[in-house]
Request: fold
Amino acid sequence: MAKSEDPEKPGRIKQLRMIAQIIKQANPKGMPIVFLSAVGTLAVVVVIGLVTDYLWYSIFIGLLAAFTVGLVVFGQFAQKAQYSLLDGQKGAAAAVLQGMRGNWQVTPAIAANRDQDVVHLVVGYPGVVLVSEGPGNRVAKLLKAEKQRISRVVLGVEIYDVQCGDGPGQVPLAKLQRHLMKLPRNLKKPSVNEVKDRLRSLPRNMPLPKGPMPKGARIPRGPKMR
Reply:
């Protein structure tokens, strides 16, 4: 007996339409650029086919190339649009971190202060990464306290602290994934799993700040670490 589809789960076409609307809101020129990039790719391939007397073959190849190019450009605009929607929301960095590819474990908001600044815990091949959200003059003390607390549990493991934000010395939300991917690979997979086990029982330093955290935000996954 065939399984009934979830009525609350939108179809692929409906999802694409929703993403297209998001792109249109974030950048009115986005969808025209997607369309023109696809049409331009098809035109170039067809012209090459006319010159080389392989017109029908070039039309077939051109359609495939146009679809691929259009899809890639569409994905890039979708990623930028979703970042723009998340930017400024509480927990936006956690939503981005949880979309990373590879052997990463993200624990959102392990610490917070009365100003609702938060620190997220990330464990991966670089070691331990503490990512903060909030103004630099406020989160520096919070990061230092968390770094000291965690260092007692993961002796000898590299601990990085990253401030996510738009202030001086901070990493913008749109560049956060890539910034972490560029960190050196200090641990092997067994060591990463061991660090995860050590930190799994670590209690949160403070409760979650008030206000909603972004839910259901699907950030396109970044490139795999080399």
